[in-house]
Structure formats: structure tokens, C-alpha cells
Amino acid sequence: MTSEFAIRRLTAADVDTMRALNALYAAVFEDPASYPADAPDDDWLRRQLGRDTLFALVAESAGTVIGGLTAYELPKLEQARSEIYLYDLAVDAAHRRRGIATALIAELQHIAAETGAWAVFVQADHGDDPAVALYTKLGAREDVMHFDLPPRLRP
User: Using an 8 Å Cβ cutoff, are 103 and 7 in contact?
Assistant: First the structure.
């Protein structure tokens, strides 16, 4: 297997590639319910991929998506700066240990510098030792708690 791969940022013209990335997320995260192949529709994906504050990066080899990440710019109000939240990162199991995740993160860090972002941050789950090891190698660790608060309609 070749070790060559290319990293690129998706644009509004890359709907099919985004679908391939979502399929990779579904497989790697073992979560097909969160990444269904038929949703969202093409117009939604085009609009989101066209946003300057959404970063969808893929690693491709021989025309196939073998890794990718999705990140979002979050403008801050306490200072005139933004942070980039790395939300999803996955590499196909057959292509791991080749530097793909590190290369994807490095490209996101370059984008962060170009856009003037103050930091890139990412969360990892307890027990996801490979992710924790990768992120520890690349940055400073903070132990925080994460809570999902459901939206609620007004009474």
C-alpha cells in the first residue's frame, strides 16, 4: 500500500466528497445513525461547505477519502479573536499509523494561523487512548467536563 496521500479543504463543489467523509465518520465512529448516507440534502451541504467558518478537510489516496476532519470557527466576544473547534477527526483503519491525522491537524493549524484564530481546540473521550496520545503529542492538555444540554421550547 502506498503511503502517498493529499490533504485538501472541501468547497461548495465537493458535496459527493463530503458524503464520502460522512460515510467514513459513520464507519470509524460506528455511528451510522448520526451520519446517514442520504442526509442532509445537496443544497444544505453546498451552503455549509461554502461558509468561510466551516473547515472540512479530507485526506485522499487514489481518489478515495481515507481520512478527514470537520472544524468550526467560533468568534469570541471577550476579545477580538476566534478559536477553531475540531469537531470530528477520523482515519480509515486500513490507513492508520501513516501520519494522516497529524497531517490533517497540521493543515487545520495552518488555516487557523492564516485566519488569525487564537487557538485550535479538540475534545477526546476517556478511553480513546489513540486520540488522547495524538492530541497530547500536538498540544497542551486541559481536563474539563463536557455537558450536552438539550434545547427547550419556551413554555
Answer: yes
Structural domain for 13, as ranges: 6-138
CA dist 128 and 121 (Å) reads 17
Q: What is the CATH number of the domain that holds 61?
A: 3.40.630.30
Residues near 58 by Cβ (< 8 Å), separated by ≥ 6? 7, 8, 10, 17, 20, 21, 65, 67, 68
Cell of 50: 461554502
Residue 39 in any domain: the answer is yes
Taking the model in full, what pTM does it have?
0.86
The grid coordinates of residue 68 equal 478527514
Instruction: For residue range 27-82, list pLDDT tens digits in order.
Output: 999 988 888 766 899 999 999 999 999 999 999 999 999 999 999 999 999 988 89
Burial of 38-51, coded b for 16+ CB within 10 Å and e otherwise, reads eeeeeeebeebbee
Task: Give how many domains the chain has, as a whole number.
Answer: 1
